Amino acid sequence: MIAMLGMYDMPALQPANDRLWALIRDHLGFGPDQLTRETDFWDVWQHPDLTFAQTCGMPYRTRLHGNVQLVGTPNYGLEGCPPGYYRSVFVARKNDPRDLQGLSNGTFAYNEGLSQSGWAAPMVHLEALNLCPKTILETGGHARSANAVADGQADYAALDALTWELLKTHSDLGASLREVGTTPPTPALPYITAIGQDTQGIARAVRAAIDDLNPQDRDLLHLRGLIAIPAENYLSVPNPVRDYAI
HSE (CB half, 13 Å, CA atoms) of 221? Predict the structure, then answer.
């Protein structure tokens, strides 16, 4: 059995994620004693003994659909988003006055090419505005993209809205970066389990665990509940049309 909550697991959040998983496991009555960390996401997501994990919308619609089951989608109570949805936030340096059109002539930092919030959503949004990054820089993570902008390696980036909130709270990036715009909301990062697992039972355990979580942990993780979003809602989210050769 394996479980991972690595999508929002910066050091400041790890103890709260551990306590969340302990509550889920208690309500389930089974599962690994500890969350898996320092393991490749794809190895976990595709593991035949996967009990519980969180993935991203783009990996789900492009590769995981049909090979895993949706458990539910956490509601993070994000501003401007329906329950269970999120969006990307474009950020630039505070001392850079350019708007999104001006920034598109520079370097765009992105975490990786199968990220919904870091790549697909911002590219689709730019395409709708007839804009295109002049150059792109792959960083390997949202925080790294934000740092690349802050350090001047890139001109702008698009961050998962929850990650942006977490970075403003747990780092100094909020002091050096500013919001330039946002993408339309799409379904947030879903919880998944392996084929053959009892999704309804796991969903009940997750809802009970969120209810039982102490208020400080619930606020730290921004958890407001669990939403049932159909697979079709994830599969209908568009991919970028342009070939960026990433």
Answer: 28
First CA to last CA across the chain, in angstroms? 34
Residues 6+ apart with CB under 8 A from 172: none
Q: Report yes or no: 24 and 31 within 8 Å, Cβ to Cβ.
A: yes
Domains contained in the chain, number? 2
**Beta pairing, strands 191-194 & 88-93:** unpaired
What is the distance between the alpha carbons of residues 231 and 38, in angstroms, rounded to a whole number? Answer: 28
* DSSP structure string for 4-36: ---TT--GGGHHHHHHHHHHHHHHHT-S-SS--
CA separation for the pair 73, 90 (Å, rounded): 23
121 φψ region: left (φ > 0), alpha (ψ -120 to 50), beta (else): alpha
Separation of alpha carbons 12 and 230, rounded Å: 32
218, 75 in Cβ contact below 8 A? no
Same domain assignment for residues 69 and 107:
no
Q: What are phi and psi of 169, to 5 degrees?
A: -85, -40
Which domain does 144 fall in, by range?
Answer: 88-184
Same domain, 48 and 12: yes
pLDDT tens string 140-199: 999 999 999 999 999 999 999 999 999 999 999 999 999 999 999 999 999 999 999 999
Q: Residue 116 in contact with residue 124, Cβ under 8 Å?
A: no
Contact assessment for residue 158 and residue 86, using Cβ atoms and an 8 Å cutoff? no
